[in-house]
């Protein structure tokens, strides 16, 4: 197996996750959606939101580290 493909396939898709949350919101707002379905959509949304938060924290930590490394040593 190509390691590049493996690494890329495991990369978190933030944009796709946001789109999925938007689709779930539309389904929840639909009067045709039953209460049991809504409960499942809410659970799925919670999982996606946790993954998004983790991804954003990781990005923030990475940016903070990069900015810290970029500072001149004498400051």
Task: Report the principal-axis shape.
Answer: rod-shaped
Number of domains: 1
Strand content: under 5%
Distance between the termini: 47 Å
Individual helix count:
3
- Low-pLDDT runs: 1-9
> What summary fits the major beta sheet?
none
Q: What does the average pLDDT come to?
A: 88
Explain what you see:
With 75 residues, this protein is mainly α. It has one domain. 80% of the residues lie in helices and 0% in strands. It is built from three helices and no strands. The protein has helices spanning 3-10, 14-29, 35-70. α2 (14-29) runs antiparallel to α3 (35-70). The chain is rod-shaped, with a radius of gyration of 19 Å. Residues 1-9 have low confidence and may be disordered.
Brief characterization of the structure:
With 75 residues, this protein is mainly α.
Record keyword descriptors for this entry:
75 residues, mainly alpha, 3 helices, rod-shaped, disordered N terminus
Set out the fold topology.
Layout: H1 3-10, H2 14-29, H3 35-70
């Amino acid at each position: 197996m190509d390691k590049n493909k493996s690494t890329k396939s495991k990369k978190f898709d933030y944009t796709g996750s946001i789109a999925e949350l938007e689709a779930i919101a539309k389904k929840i707002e639909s009067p045709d959606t039953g209460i049991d379905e809504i409960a499942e959509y809410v659970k799925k949304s919670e999982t996606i939101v946790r993954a998004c938060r983790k991804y954003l924290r990781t990005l923030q930590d990475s940016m903070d580290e990069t900015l810290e490394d970029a500072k001149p040593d004498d400051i």
